[in-house]
Amino acid sequence: MYYKRSTGTILVRKSKDFPSWVKWTHHSEGKSHCDECLKLDGCFFTENNHPAWPHHPFCHCTLDPIDYTVVLMNAASYSDYSKFDPYLFNTHGQYTHTKERLFAQWGYTVEDAHWLQAEMEKQARERYVTGDYTLGKLDTFLLHYIRRSTKT
């Protein structure tokens, strides 16, 4: 990636190391809409790691190619602060886990919670833009869809 001073834009040199990306686009056709498709609308996926498409019979969604720079400029990650304080550092004593002891052994205190939150978000974003992510529950749906479609 480099900055082009004359136009004030960030340019990404095309490389075989960058995954190809697609954007899930829901097209409203008819009166009924699939809740999952509506939630996926506007999401970015690598070309070889996206939810099953078409997602269901009569699905009107499309997977539209997008430039890698769009992903870089728009990708974000978020981790709720409450996962660190009070949960991870157990500052209220309400959790039965002992994770705070482990982090204390590593030299972390509750004063590091904001830094840990930012670091986790940074690492998650870095992994995502390189295509290193899983679809979670959508993976389960994909496997079910593949098994069902291969039986017919």
Word description of this protein:
With 152 residues, this protein is α+β, with helices and mostly antiparallel strands. The chain folds into 2 domains: 74 residues, no CATH class; 76 residues, no CATH class. Strand 1 and strand 2 form a beta hairpin. The protein is elongated, with a radius of gyration of 20 Å.
List keywords for this structure.
152 residues, alpha+beta, three-stranded antiparallel sheet, 6 helices, 12% strand, elongated, disordered N terminus, disordered C terminus
Write the layout of secondary structure elements.
Layout (H helix, E strand, L loop, with lengths): L1 E3 L4 E3 L9 E5 L9 H6 L3 E3 L15 E5 L1 H7 L9 H5 L10 H7 L7 H17 L7 H15 L1
Antiparallel strand pairs: 1-2, 3-4, 3-5
Let me know the average pLDDT: 82
* Class of secondary structure makeup: alpha+beta
Order of strands in the sheet with the most strands? 4-3-5
Q: What's the tally of helices?
A: 6
**Domain count:** 2
Could you give the count of β-strands? Answer: 5
